[in-house]
């Protein structure tokens, strides 16, 4: 164990563990950097403490589970999320201090020394100097978000959705605490409750209105995801259960969640009727239900006192910052919102045709409401998707327009998650990694359960050469959203390739191509991975398709975004073995 003073009397009364630039204060239960506290959740703090106390040796995952979550059955995702949170909290030191040993565990890489705790006067001074802010982890340590009653911290959300979200969070939180206590002697919640919002049923009698109930489901997922106390599955994870008969227990086991949200929407000419309920997936028992019947024109303006009554009834409180986050109002125009809902499938499963159609719909939404941030963000995404998929004749012009629209969205609402993600991806394209990381970190602070945000972070880590951390993050994104978008699944397959996990790389690349035949960059990974496995016939078959469908492919351009020359050499080695020679090709439209 790499700890100084381990045999001295100081250790017996030690209250602090010092490493690198940090102090782990065991008395106060906090992590300090230059006297400033970095906020960690209790279990994440416990993971860090155990790693620090066992510095210099491999700590197996099972050992961490036993130490931090004794007698509780949890999945690897909980540990991955805690380690990811630690790395973000430690900023640029995170991946250096906490090393991943693939498929085995973690090793803390720093000399650790024991020290007595600071005295009470020092602690009091430290507390008295604290400003009224909320610290959030970022890639560079922490940044502070002022808690101001006038600042709009939130992405858009309708009041109807807001009421449902507040209730669901309170109900899930209350039930989660009660149930977790049965399995642990500690009053802390052992792990974040996992919740799935099942596709809401359209009871309007008109199947063409499915997009409205689907859109409402997606908005509730998005709003719930902003509460860091919950793990919320994505729309793609729950979509297979649309109109699929299955018991709560079956769905809960399949999705590995404890709670389900079910609902129905009946839309008439002038009214909207919503029924919602929270279900314990293990017992099939309804924990909470509610009915809303509102004028359609007032769908954004339910009375505030409804929310207050629900909070009172649940006897719990939601912090002001999170209430503001979900109660923010998106647009005065129901028609504009309708256009945004119609455009959403294009970002989930893009084709040339539906991206072009989405662009038209979103422009109409902006014409109706020029201050609708979400519409600008969605439109920006269409301008990024086109060059990313190789569909833009002038990629630079499209990306410039996408960046302009994303910045416009953020000027209207600086907490629009999608705008931050799109801006980050555009920065990655131009290899502006510092700016890309800053934007993706902002998106994840706003919504820690957004699969595209996590996927975007994984993409950046891969290009930076932090392959193990990239795989962890991308796998977490895939856990939340099994139907990863085309770009993130490509990144996951390429990261597996870099770690010589060729079978996993092949599996992800083939899946990407099954879901989107236009994902030509996945064929490149597939050909290289087959070649590394000496599967010459399979590799040759893929190479033939590449030469037929993408005759301008240039192996010298592919992978030029890698900062680690070893990664680039490994990719080019696979392409050489596959027989993709630069001399036979021209220029690649999109650099990967």
Notable traits:
alpha+beta; 25 helices; 6-stranded mixed sheet; globular; disordered C terminus; single chain; 592 residues
What does this structure look like?
By secondary structure, the chain is of the alpha+beta class. The strands form 4 sheets. A 6-stranded mixed beta sheet has the order 1-9-2-3-4-5, with helices on one face. Strands 12, 13, 14, 15, 16 and 17 form a 6-stranded mixed beta sheet that branches. Strands 6-8-7 form a 3-stranded antiparallel beta sheet. α15 runs antiparallel to α16 and α17 packs parallel to α19. The chain is globular and about 70 Å long. The C terminus is likely disordered.
What would you report as the Rg, rounded to the nearest angstrom? 25 Å
The helix content is 40-55%
Largest beta-sheet characterization: 6 strands, mixed
Measured between the Cα atoms of the first and last residue, the distance is 42 Å
Walk across the major sheet and give the strand order. Answer: 1-9-2-3-4-5
Instruction: Figure out the total of helices.
Output: 25
Given helix and strand content, the structural type is: alpha+beta
Estimated share of beta-strand residues: 5-15%
Shape: globular
Mean pLDDT: 75
| Number of extended strands | 17
pLDDT < 50 stretches:
4-13, 117-158, 174-191, 301-327, 582-591
